[in-house]
Design brief:
Blueprint lengths: L11 E5 L42 E3 L2 E5 L4 E8 L4 E4 L19 E2 L6 E3 L3 E8 L15 H8 L13 E4 L8 E2 L6 E8 L15 E5 L6 E2 L12 E5 L7 E5 L4 E3 L4 E3 L6 E5 L8 H10 L3 E4 L2 E9 L2 E6 L1
Parallel strand pairs: 18-21
Antiparallel strand pairs: 1-18, 2-3, 3-4, 4-5, 5-12, 6-10, 7-12, 8-9, 8-11, 13-15, 14-15, 16-17, 19-20, 20-21
């Protein structure tokens, strides 16, 4: 079988994947919730009591998906089920102020017992801060990226009168579950996903907070009837780890696919044909990891490779 690529070959490397790649089923889970308006609701997210996983509750309000926090709600602007991530739209500024609307609920506060957390993909900027922040580990210097944002953004014009602002990368510790705003600290914030500080503010994209979820366990059951939606592929058995809980465990040789919410088979190994730099040091494990997340964008070490084409388990990756 011949597969063509738009890349000029410098060297052709044939790699046979020795690892087994999890099945990426195109079929929707029988437990998946119906669309919210025109937006798909991927498993395990749940908009109702009879679909999804009840530990992953979100809301559907007039065709718009809403993410509930401990004390507020935020619109969901995008979802990437293969990488278990979604992006919410943070609160706007109150008119003509450097104060965000959610200061009354102390900003974004996730429930730490829920299977969600704020990822390290977010660059957070605290605005309108008190001098107490100057002693924090955050970057509150005059060269902090937040000043670039304030000086280039009309909506943040009021923040020019509040000279102290700080920037940090979210994720880890308390920042994995909250973006805190309050009068005694910082009264406003902005968050950008995958921000490239070398780009002008106009190319940062819209403000957003990326949140990820933990892959769900097998569905909870009380009787075998609760597992009927799996078409005989699972059995209601006692969970040996969680006392008093039973789950729909997949029947061997099937295994639980938490991304798609089904009992699935494992796929056979893939063969990769890589066209690119002659001295490219390929990390097969990394290729497999990124393939399972974003099939059209592969990062091999620090080289961006695109146009992954797979035909009958033979894949071509082009690296410029």
């Amino acid at each position: 079988m011949e597969v063509t690529s738009t890349f000029t070959p410098h060297k052709l490397l044939l790699l046979t994947a020795g690892l087994l790649l999890s099945a990426l089923s195109l079929a929707a889970s029988p437990r998946q919730c119906p669309p919210c308006g025109t937006t798909e609701v991927p498993y395990p997210l749940s908009t109702g009591p009879t679909c999804g996983d009840q530990d992953y509750k979100i809301l559907c309000n007039n065709g718009t998906l809403i993410f509930p926090t401990s004390n507020n709600t935020y619109p969901i602007t995008s979802i990437k089920p293969q990488s278990q991530r979604l992006v919410i739209q943070p609160s706007s500024f109150l008119p003509n102020t450097c104060v965000t609307e959610d200061i009354s609920t102390t900003g974004v506060q996730l429930n730490q017992t829920a299977p969600f957390n704020i990822t390290g993909d977010n660059t957070i900027m605290y605005l309108n801060c008190t001098p107490s922040l100057l002693g924090s580990p955050l970057n509150c210097s005059s060269s902090s990226l937040c000043h670039v944002y304030i000086n280039a953004t009309r909506d943040a014009a009021a923040c020019q009168k509040a000279p102290i602002c700080c920037t940090f990368q979210a994720g880890g510790g308390t920042t994995a579950y909250m973006i805190r705003v309050r009068s005694a600290g910082c009264r406003a914030y902005r968050s950008f996903v995958d921000l490239d500080p070398t780009q002008p503010v106009s190319r940062w994209g819209q403000p957003g907070v990326m949140i990820q979820w933990v892959l769900p366990q097998e569905p909870v059951c009380r009787t075998q009837a609760d597992c009927a939606v799996d078409g005989g592929n699972s059995t209601c058995r006692v969970d040996p780890i969680s006392v008093g809980t039973s789950r729909c465990f997949c029947n061997s040789p099937l295994r639980w696919d938490g991304i798609n919410g089904v009992c699935a088979e494992r796929e056979s190994p893939l063969t990769f044909t890589v066209v690119g730099k002659p001295d490219l040091d390929l990390d097969l494990d990394l290729i497999l990891a990124f393939y399972s997340i974003e099939p059209k964008l592969i990062r091999v070490n620090r080289t961006i490779c695109v146009d992954l084409i797979c035909v009958t388990k033979v894949c071509v990756i082009g690296c410029s």
